[in-house]
Amino acid sequence: MKSEPKVRASLPDGLTADTLREMYYRMVLTRMCDDRAFALNRQGKIPFAATCQGHEGVQVGAAYALKRGTDWLVPYYRDTALALSYGVTPREQLMCLFARKADIFSSGRQFPNHYSVPDRNIASISSIIAAHVTHGVGMALAFRMRKQPIVTLITFGEGSTSEGEWHEALNFASIHKVPAVFLCENNEFAISVPQKLQMAITNVADRAAGYGMPGVICDGTDPVATYTVVRAAVERARAGEGPTLIEAKCYRAMSHTSDDNQATYRTPQEIEALKSRDPIPRFEGWLKDRGLIDDETIAQLKKKAQAEVDEATDWAEQQPPPTEEDLYTHVYASGALS
Ligand SMILES: Cc1ncc(C[n+]2csc(CCOP(=O)(O)OP(=O)(O)O)c2C)c(N)n1
User: What are the φ/ψ torsions at residue 246 (nearest 5 degrees)?
Assistant: First the structure.
């Protein structure tokens, strides 16, 4: 029987060796789902895909810092790893991409990745960037008013922080000390607009000072670094001390979505250089350095993830599409007009 490799360093608070390997698995699984989505799009089988590549570290780290089943996510469209670490399955992810009738987010009506899974504490999101930030603050206020010890994690890109609603949300959240954590996944681009044309500051986290809340920066390619800061912010929020703005510096490895072509605004050298920041090999190195994983386990986990994504793809593709009658369902709450 294979023995557990000797752990060479103490583990971060709240994370066991098994949890760290599970986090690694979620990152690999997300990457494979993402690759599959873009391949299906190019095959003409799905209309649209939004990539998460380069964001796996921040999203998995953040998901594991929450109390699953208690805390709520108010995510945005790039949060595949967050969703897959918070109870969404690869079958559900793929079914939404195929826009099948049984899609659990919207019965195939919404854009892909517009998560909405109330039974897993994932709130519905809006395509209007930053609109969901006000929704998330409202939810957090409700939890506080009901004296429920629930924290809301609200995510967005750095481009979204240019929106008026984002500022209104943070201002209100801080005045009322709502139990929210604002997580900016700063990938340096809002579609084709680089950060320097979006704001005249280097760090989004500096905006926190204007609202009287802590602003924290972390390496968003590192799941453990992100886990550590999100966990501290979640504890602070749960203790009634108010919200925190976290800026996780990451990057977007691919074009904004399958409808975009980053070659029109990034040079081939820039695109190539991003590969050195890939969160997956970096986390592999981190785990190996601590004796928590070896090459054999890495190969097994990758094989398992590939099999899970292959199975989910075949299954989702076989599910029936919506029918003509479905046009009229989910438009009004049933009985609302009676
Ligand atoms: C109010 C509004 N303006 C513009 C858009 C079009 N749009 C969709 S995604 C996006 C970029 C958002 O960038 P960022 O917040 O940095 O997130 P990222 O996509 O980089 O993860 C824009 C401008 C939109 N959906 N809503």
Answer: -115, 135
